[in-house]
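Title: Comparing notes on inverse folding

I've been comparing how different people in this forum approach sequence design from structure. To keep things fair, I'm posting one structure and asking everyone to reply with a full sequence. Here's the target:
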């Protein structure tokens, strides 16, 4: 049975303070202009992005549902209800693309379960951009999210991932809270074997973008300030 449901659009945003149309296709602008119901991580920054990419859009007409760590599963299940009335809903990322290293996968799964069509839109993913620019194995890679905070557990995890990388020819990607980036970089230089390749990809798509791949031995002579800069770390042991 075919339903005249609205669709769930997965809407990417910029990775930083650059102009949206420098990194987003016009289709994203048109979609934002056509939608009034949005699922967002932060209302204030979502309104700012919407105003920037669609300046003529009426802000009072917007209906924003906040999806963050405080949102209950029961509450979030109602966020796609407008779709059942034939109204399109946008799932808007805080930075980059929705549901990839970002909240929203449960909303997407709910849409599939309820026969609501899911439409992912093209936009910058820091994970994919970093992998593209790394020179490491784009045929086999894994995103691991955050490493443990505890130093002993973190070092153990780094060594486990390094062994897995070698055994499975798989590049390992992960992120850190920006103010901890420098400490993690130092820890990687000290924990990984000298011949392992390490990619640092910081400030992707911004004017300060930095992407570099060196062996750990080579990184030991490089000085780089990663403090509070959004960063993707990748390593691969061949």
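Reply #1:
Here's my take.
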């Amino acid at each position: 049975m075919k339903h005249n449901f609205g669709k769930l659009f997965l809407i990417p945003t910029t990775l930083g303070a650059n102009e949206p149309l420098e990194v987003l296709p016009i289709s994203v602008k048109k979609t934002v202009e056509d939608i009034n119901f949005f699922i967002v991580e932060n209302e204030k920054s979502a309104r700012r992005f919407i105003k920037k990419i669609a300046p003529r859009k009426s802000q009072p007409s917007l209906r924003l549902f906040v999806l963050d760590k405080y949102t209950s599963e029961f509450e979030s299940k109602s966020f796609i209800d407008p779709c059942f009335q034939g109204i399109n809903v946008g799932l808007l990322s805080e930075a980059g693309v929705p549901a990839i290293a970002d909240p929203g996968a449960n909303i997407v799964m709910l849409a599939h379960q309820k026969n609501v069509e899911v439409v992912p839109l093209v936009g910058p993913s820091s994970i994919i951009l970093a992998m593209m620019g790394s020179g490491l194995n784009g045929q086999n890679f894994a995103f691991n999210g955050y490493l443990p905070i505890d130093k002993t557990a973190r070092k153990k995890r780094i060594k486990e991932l390094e062994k897995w990388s070698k055994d499975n020819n798989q590049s390992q990607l992960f992120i850190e809270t920006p103010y901890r980036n420098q400490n993690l970089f130092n820890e990687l230089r000290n924990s990984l074997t000298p011949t392992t390749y390490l990619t640092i990809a910081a400030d992707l798509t911004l004017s300060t973008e930095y992407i570099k791949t060196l062996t750990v031995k080579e990184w030991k002579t490089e000085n780089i300030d990663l403090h509070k800069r959004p960063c993707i770390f990748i390593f691969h042991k061949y």
